[in-house]
Specification:
7 strands; about 15% strand; 13 helices; single chain; Rossmann fold
C-alpha cells in the first residue's frame, strides 16, 4: 500500500499560513507531503520547506513527491517536539514564516503499517509506535504496567468510561496468556462492555486512542512543541495546528490563550508581578472545522479542528 493521508482542512490550512514566495516553512508532521506539496509550490525556489516525521516510510514518500516539484526542502526523521534543537543546529530560530502541524494519523498507518493502529486488523501486533525504534510498545504497557497505571492511561488519554473494568480484565487476562495481538485486546474490551450501553463510536476507539497516545508521548510532545514553535517563528509568522481530539485541542487552545495575554497573574492580584508578555495574536476565535461536504467525502475529518495564531510583532497586538 502506498503511504497515503488525505489532508484534512487542506484549503483552510494552506490559506491560514499566508505563504509568500521565498518563505521558510515548517511542516511538523509531513506524512506523505499532502500539505507540503502545495507549500513547496507556493514558496518557490527562493524559499525552504523543512519537514519532520517519525515514520521513515512517510519521509520516503514525501521525498519522492517533493522532488518532482523542487529540491529546496529538508526532511528530518525526528519528532516535531525537537523543533527548537534543530532550529539551533540549522540556524532557523526566528526565521520561519509559517508552521503547520497536522496531528492526524495517516491512512497508511491505520491500514497497513502492521503496527496495530486499527482494531479491525485482528492479527496485527499491538505495537502502536510511530517510530519503530522507540522502546515502549502497546504490548509492553498491557503486559507489564500496573493496573492503576493502565486505568490512568485509559481515563486520562482516552476518557474511557470503562477504564477500571478494562484494566482489571487486562491484568486477569495476562495471568495466563500474554496480550500480543489486536484480537486479544479487542476481546477484553468487548467483554468489559458486555451488558453495558455501548458508545455511538466503536467501543474500542477510546482505549486504542489512549494507548497510542501513551506509547508515543503525543500530548507531552505537543506541550513541548508549542513554545518552541513560537521561538522558531519570525515576528508576524503564522502557526496553524490541526487537532483531532479534545485533549490535543485543549492544550492548543490554552496555550494560545495564555500567550495572547500580557499578564497571567491570578485575578485577585492587585498588581501584575508575572512580567509575562504576549507572544501570539489569536486569529481563530473559534476553531475552523470541516464542511459537511468534506466530512461526507472523508468521515475521518469529522473531529478535526484548526486553530491559528500569529507571532506578535514587537509585542503589539
Amino acid at each position: 500500500m502506498v503511504y497515503e493521508h488525505v489532508p484534512v482542512l487542506f484549503n483552510e490550512a494552506i490559506a491560514s499560513l499566508k505563504i509568500q514566495k521565498g518563505d521558510n516553512v515548517i511542516d511538523g508532521t509531513i506524512g506523505g507531503a499532502g500539505h507540503s506539496q502545495e507549500i513547496l509550490k507556493q514558496i518557490g525556489k527562493e524559499g525552504l520547506l523543512i519537514g519532520f516525521d517519525l515514520d521513515t516510510e512517510a519521509l520516503k514518500t514525501s521525498n519522492q513527491r517533493l522532488k518532482k516539484i523542487g529540491n529546496n526542502y529538508k526532511l528530518i526523521n525526528d519528532n516535531y517536539s525537537e523543533i527548537e534543537k534543530y532550529g539551533q543546529q540549522l540556524e532557523f530560530l526566528s526565521k520561519i514564516s509559517a508552521i503547520l502541524l497536522d496531528l492526524g494519523i495517516s491512512s497508511y498507518e491505520i491500514g497497513c503499517s502492521g503496527r496495530g493502529f486499527s482494531f479491525q486488523k485482528l492479527d496485527e501486533p499491538l505495537d502502536l509506535r510511530f517510530n519503530v525504534n522507540s522502546e515502549v510498545t502497546g504490548k509492553e504497557i498491557l503486559n507489564n504496567y500496573r493496573e492503576e497505571e493502565i486505568t490512568r492511561i485509559l481515563q486520562e488519554y482516552g476518557e474511557e468510561p470503562q477504564a477500571k473494568n478494562i484494566s482489571r480484565r487486562v491484568v486477569n487476562y495476562r495471568k495466563t496468556k500474554k496480550i500480543e495481538k489486536v484480537a486479544d485486546l479487542l476481546k477484553i474490551i468487548e467483554e468489559a462492555y458486555r451488558g453495558k450501553s455501548k458508545p455511538k463510536i466503536h467501543f474500542a476507539t477510546k482505549a486504542w486512542q489512549a494507548l497510542r497516545i501513551a506509547v508515543n508521548n503525543e500530548l507531552s510532545s505537543l506541550e513541548k512543541f508549542l513554545p518552541a514553535a513560537v521561538k522558531c517563528l519570525k515576528p508576524g509568522g503564522q502557526l496553524a495546528i490541526i487537532s483531532f481530539h479534545s485533549l490535543e485541542d485543549r492544550i492548543v487552545k490554552q496555550f494560545f490563550k495564555k500567550e495572547s495575554k500580557n499578564c497571567i497573574c491570578p485575578k485577585e492580584f492587585p498588581v501584575c508581578t508575572c512580567q509575562h508578555h504576549a507572544s501570539l495574536k489569536i486569529l481563530t476565535k473559534k476553531p475552523i472545522i470541516p464542511s459537511s461536504e468534506e466530512i461526507n467525502i472523508n468521515p475521518r475529518s469529522r473531529s478535526a479542528k484548526l486553530r491559528v495564531a500569529q507571532k506578535i510583532i514587537k509585542n503589539n497586538v
